[in-house]
Every structure is written in C-alpha cells, then in structure tokens.
Write a structure and sequence with these properties.
By secondary structure, this protein is α/β, with parallel strands linked by helices. It has two domains: 3-185 and 293-375, Zn peptidases (Aminopeptidase), CATH 3.40.630; 187-291, 2-Layer Sandwich (Alpha-Beta Plaits), CATH 3.30.70.360. Helix content is 35%, strand content 24%. It is built from eleven helices and 16 strands. The protein has helices spanning 3-9, 11-23, 31-47, 94-97, 112-131, 153-164, 211-222, 261-272, 298-313, 329-333, 361-375; strands spanning 51-55, 63-68, 79-85, 101-103, 106-108, 140-145, 166-171, 181-185, 187-196, 231-239, 249-258, 282-291, 320-323, 339-340, 347-348, 356-358. Strands 1-2-6-3-7-14 form a six-stranded mixed sheet, sandwiched between helices. Strands 4-5-16-15 form a four-stranded antiparallel sheet, with helices on one face. Strands 10-11-9-12 form a four-stranded antiparallel sheet. Helix 1 packs across helix 11 and helix 2 crosses helix 5 (112-131). The longest helix has 20 residues, at 112-131. It is elongated.
Amino acid sequence: MDLIEYFKSRQEEMVSLLKEIVIRESPSTDKKAVDICSSFVAKELKKIGAKITRFPQKQTGDLYLAEYPSEFRSKEGSQLLVLTHIDTVWPVGKIKEMPFQIKRNKVFGPGVLDMKIGLVVALFSLRYLKEMNIHPKRKIAVFINSAEEIESHASYQAIQKLAKESAYVLCLEPALPGGALKIQRKGRLVIRMEAKGKAAHAGTPEKGTNAVEELMLQLRQLQKIRTKSISFNIGLIGGGEKVNIVAEKAWAVLDIRFWNIQQKKKIMSFLKQLVPQLKGAQIRFSTESFTPPMEKTKASSDFFRKVKKIAESLGMTLEAGKTGGGSDASIASGMGIPTLDGLGPDGDGIHAENEHLILSSLPQRTALFTEIISQL
C-alpha cells in the first residue's frame, strides 16, 4: 500500500479527530476555550510519544511545543519546525450556526480549514512514523500557537527562538485554492490613527475644531498609499460624543498590507509626514501590530524545489504561489530560514461562513507532509 492509499484508509479516523478538535471551539480571545482545545490536542500528541512542553500565558491561550521523537538529540540548528495554530476567528457558539458536517467532498465547520485540519495532518503523520518504526533524520518540533489570528508577542518570540534552532520550517496553513504552496505573503501593519480637536456647540461650530472632520481628511490622504502592491483598509472607526457637539476626539484602525520591507518603509515615511489639515487640530498614529512579509528568498525557493521533487515521487504536482494574508511562516522566513507555507489540505472560505475542507485533498497532503518530514 502506497502512502496516499494508506491515509485514504485512515481518512475516517482523521475526520473523526478533526470533528473532536472543531467542536472544541477556540476563539483567540477566549483563553478558557482555547486552553481546553489545546490541552486535548496535546494529549493526543503525547499518546504517540511526543514530549509536550506547555508555556502558560496570562491573557491568551497557553502555547504548546510537541517534540518527536521525545529522546531525539539533534545538533543546534538542525531540527525541523512545524508551525500550527489552534485559535480561530469564530466565537463560542458558532458551531450551532456552522455545524461540523460533511457534504459530498467537503467538510464544513468553524476553523475546520484555518487551521484545525493542519493539526490533524501533523498528528497522523507522526503517528505513521511511530507505527512504521520510521526514525526521522531530525527532531520534529510542532509548535501550537494559541493566538495567531490576533498576533501575540509571546508567540512571536517563541517562533523566533524555535526558528533559530531549525534547519527548515514547515507551516500547515491550508494550501492556496487548487493546492499551490505559499512562498510569498504580504506583511501587515495595523495602525491606529487618532485626531484631536476642540469641543463646541454644534450651533456655533466655528468655535471648535471637529476631530471627525480632521480624521476624514487624513484618511483621504492615506488613500494615496494604495497601489497594486499596497492595500489599505479602514477596518474600525469612531469619534464624537453627541450629535450636537463638535467632536473633540476621533480614531480609526487601519489594516495596511505590502509585499516587502521597502514598501513598509515607504508607508511609515508617508505616515510620519502627515500634518493636521484643520486649524487647531492634532493628529497622531501608533502601530498596534506588525507582521513581516514573507518575501521570496533563494533559501525558500531552493527548499520548494526539493519538496516539489518529493511530491513528484508521490505522483503529485506542486506549484508555488502567493497570498495577501499573513501567517507565522513570515516570522521564520524573515530570519532567512528555508520556509514553506500552505502545506495543509485544500479548501476555501477562510474566515467566512462557507469555510470548508476538500476531503479528497486530505490523504494526499498528509502523505506529502509525512514524506517531507521523513526525508528532510
């Protein structure tokens, strides 16, 4: 039985485990819920002989590291790092509106594709190595992030530390639609823009300075940074106190995305050059979060060619692609570590109510991942 056929024979078990993980809802901002789900997965990994290390967190869910084999002694910088995350964008209770269900060749449910199926792939690949008594050439370190969707300084630091100890990094985010891997991702800046004016009665607006108007003028200015490569989204906005008061304060939170660090520098330079447009107004901006871009590097391109050959040995054809969304893979890639993303199964509807996994891709991608961690 070849590897793909083997995982086809285990597909029912894989879907059953996926259901157990999905019904344990785990929104990023609900520590209790995330910890319940993470603990369940950690116990499953421990069953196959992985060494489990928990990193307690106060505000977000605890972080976990599963190392396989548990007694493997690898040289510094030689381990294989696998990035996963267990948190989702969906609140507890969403499972009632988006029940876990299989319709023809698709599996639906909150977080099913992004990225709880990645955890299933990692677990069954390691289980296969143990059952077949296959000894990997490197220690395999599976990192389970609890706050990938909202970004976390603790997880960022953990990934940086683990990446430094790794020869290769694999991220089990879902594939691009059609199955391509991701060797480029946009970076992301979350910027908070604030405007301050002077309150006055709405009947005598000339006595005040309207912060909402100032903010609107600044946002119009910021639209100039939009290009084919740089995207700009006004995600949140607010301001004012009452309708009959000239607004003293206003704010907006912006999502700005870009392909490389040079574009990021251009954005920051533009922001620093902004000046108030209304007399008496004040403006300021702050960076709420930053995700580096996953730029196309020689290290990752060479790594892709190596994995492409492994896929061909399984009768699979792999393509390399890019996406505007961010992931933890960008952290490792930015450090110069050979990194590939999108190794999870195929599907669509991430962050949407039609989120689904294409079931037929599950045994193929699990076989590919298993072969990769066996050969590297």
